Amino acid sequence: MNLRHIEIFHAVYVNGSVSAAARALNVSQPSVSKMLRHAESLLGFQLFQRTNGGLVPTEDAHTLFADVKEIQDRVVGLREAGRNLRRGSGGTLRILALPSLALEAIPAAVSHFMRTHPDVKFDLQTAHHDDLLRKLYEREADIAIACQVPAAAPIAQHWLGESELVVLYREEDMPDAPPCVELERLKGQPFISLASSGPIGQLFTQELERLDLELDSVVSARTFYMAGALVRQGIGMTVVDNFTAQAYLAPGLSMRPLKPRVAFDIHAMFLINRPPSALATDFLKTLGRILDAP
């Protein structure tokens, strides 16, 4: 017996007649009768006695039904799981992100997404850029959100949007700040350096080299959130991504984009043989809208 035979037998047994089974399955009566006869032919014994009052299960049918019911319940559960995935309900999304994105962008996207997907659960974690690939390979997460896709790595990626570097500073340290700040303007100011903070720190270092500019670094911070906390304490000013700066804004603190603008892309990365599910794809669309918001 195949799954279709099992479904027909189950429907006839539960509903008591071919006509009722056909209505329950939304198929024609002849097709139910044909499949039932085929099932009996394969089994080599009758499943139902034909009477004027309908179909009466045989003793063999009663014995078989216990196993058939278990299989049918599993099939129904599988179909329901498929419907849930298709409409984006249920399931767990395992998302890995750089700490800077986890401060503002990821929480905002999760909040927006759960309003329309209340049954979804999230497993969120952060890692520095060097650990992202390892955690993907070890299946600790399904998707990693990062700013640079490693060259030649056996992973696929989906572009989500872009971010940019901004100056985060105390207003009393730069009261006449213009709408966009040239890095030359920071010369002579106590500066919190991020030269060791992965690809974004390297991007900033390259911009300083391009300008042949050296800033007065008083502290070297290895994470953006540490740099933001140091600005709050009045240690100096720093250059971080706009999401980190937004998360650390408080009375007396401001942020300004650089002039010229220094931007970088943000990608979702995943293993080639484990592409995002329909649910994960919907979440990435939500995250993309958050990243694109002014």
Tell me what the structure shows.
The protein is an alpha/beta fold and 294 residues long. The chain has three domains: 3-87, Winged helix-like DNA-binding domain superfamily/Winged helix DNA-binding domain (Arc Repressor Mutant, subunit A), CATH 1.10.10; 92-161 and 266-292, D-Maltodextrin-Binding Protein, domain 2, CATH 3.40.190.10; 163-263, D-Maltodextrin-Binding Protein, domain 2, CATH 3.40.190.10. The chain is 46% helix and 23% strand. It has helices at residues 3-15, 18-25, 29-43, 59-87, 99-103, 105-116, 129-137, 198-211, 224-232, 242-248, 278-292; strands spanning 48-51, 54-57, 92-97, 121-126, 143-146, 155-170, 190-193, 216-220, 237-241, 253-257, 263-271. The protein is rod-shaped and about 100 Å long. It starts with a helix and ends with a helix.
Helix and strand content put the structural class at alpha/beta
As for the CATH topology of the largest domain, it is D-Maltodextrin-Binding Protein, domain 2
CATH architecture classification name of the largest domain: 3-Layer(aba) Sandwich
CATH class of the largest domain: Alpha Beta
Number of helices: 11
Q: Summarize the main sheet.
A: 9 strands, mixed
**Share of helix, binned:** 40-55%
Mean pLDDT: 87
Low-confidence stretches: none
Gap between N and C termini, in Å?
59 Å
Task: Give the helices and strands, then pairings.
Blueprint: H1 3-15, H2 18-25, H3 29-43, E1 48-51, E2 54-57, H4 59-87, E3 92-97, H5 99-103, H6 105-116, E4 121-126, H7 129-137, E5 143-146, E6 155-170, E7 190-193, H8 198-211, E8 216-220, H9 224-232, E9 237-241, H10 242-248, E10 253-257, E11 263-271, H11 278-292
Parallel strand pairs: 3-4, 3-5, 7-8, 7-9
Antiparallel strand pairs: 1-2, 5-11, 6-9, 6-10, 6-11
Helix pairs in contact: 1-2, 1-3, 1-4, 2-3, 6-11
